[in-house]
């Protein structure tokens, strides 16, 4: 974490201040989760660079969102979500900390990694899962003039339900105790997830960015929910 420093602080005073902040934070974590092993570490450098280096061998990297509003995401959180190979969870104060886990499904290998992460989280927390598949990046009303002879709403829903069933099959077999609800949306993928995020404990999305592309920006869905979701968001990369 990074912390504001007293004005005109010497290097030693700044380090002492940061160490006190870490001690207080560790104590707070201990009160929230008694018995949890907690260590602290104080490093010098840009927060996202330090966190990325420390988190290379981590199962998960968790950061807070320091944006002043939902439309603003802290630069450290945004950078790590786009550049870190391991799952990154960006935490806001959840409206429903004991709510369900919402996950986006698009049928890709990246989606499979996100689904696995969502199932594991739901299993550990004894939460229900909501699997959401959006049929297209455009609303069906916009597509209707072009595709009215090829598809109707029922056909599109059936196709989407088949995608969900295929993607969930192996995961549900491995996690038989996790209850899963399925939902098909004809909104854009980001909007479909945001529509059901208000009562979510966690929103899980996959990021399709790879290599230099990933280093430059997040996928549009990941970007959209990170900046607008009212709940914590987990971004899972394909190679996580």
From TrEMBL:
The keyword ATP-binding applies. Signal peptide: none annotated. Keywords: ATP-binding, Nucleotide-binding. It comes from the Bacteria. InterPro entries: Rossmann-like_a/b/a_fold, Universal_stress_UspA, UspA. Pfam families: Usp. The keyword GTP-binding does not apply. Residues 6-92, 100-237 form the UspA domain. Belongs to the universal stress protein A family. This is Nucleotide-binding universal stress UspA family protein. It comes from Lentzea atacamensis.
């Amino acid at each position: 974490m990074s912390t504001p420093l007293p004005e005109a602080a010497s290097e030693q005073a700044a380090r002492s201040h940061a160490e006190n902040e870490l001690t207080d934070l560790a104590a707070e974590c201990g009160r929230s989760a008694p018995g949890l092993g907690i260590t602290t570490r104080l490093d010098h450098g840009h927060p996202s660079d330090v966190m990325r280096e420390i988190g290379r061998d981590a199962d998960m990297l968790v950061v807070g969102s320091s944006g002043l509003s939902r439309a603003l995401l802290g630069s450290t959180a945004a950078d790590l979500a786009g550049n870190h190979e391991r799952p990154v969870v960006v935490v806001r104060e959840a409206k429903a900390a004991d709510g369900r886990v919402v996950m986006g499904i698009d049928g890709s290998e990246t989606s499979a990694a996100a689904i696995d992460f969502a199932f594991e989280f739901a299993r550990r927390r004894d939460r229900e899962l909501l699997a959401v598949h959006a049929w297209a990046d455009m609303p069906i009303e916009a597509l209707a003039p072009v595709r009215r002879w090829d598809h109707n709403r029922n056909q599109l829903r059936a196709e989407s339900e088949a995608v969900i069933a295929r993607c969930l099959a192996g995961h549900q077999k491995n996690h038989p105790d996790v209850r899963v609800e399925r939902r098909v949306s004809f909104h854009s993928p980001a909007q479909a997830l945001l529509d059901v995020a208000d009562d979510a404990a966690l929103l899980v999305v996959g990021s399709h960015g790879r290599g230099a592309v990933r280093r430059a920006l997040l996928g549009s869905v990941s970007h959209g929910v990170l900046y607008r979701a009212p709940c914590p968001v987990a971004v899972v990369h394909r190679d996580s």
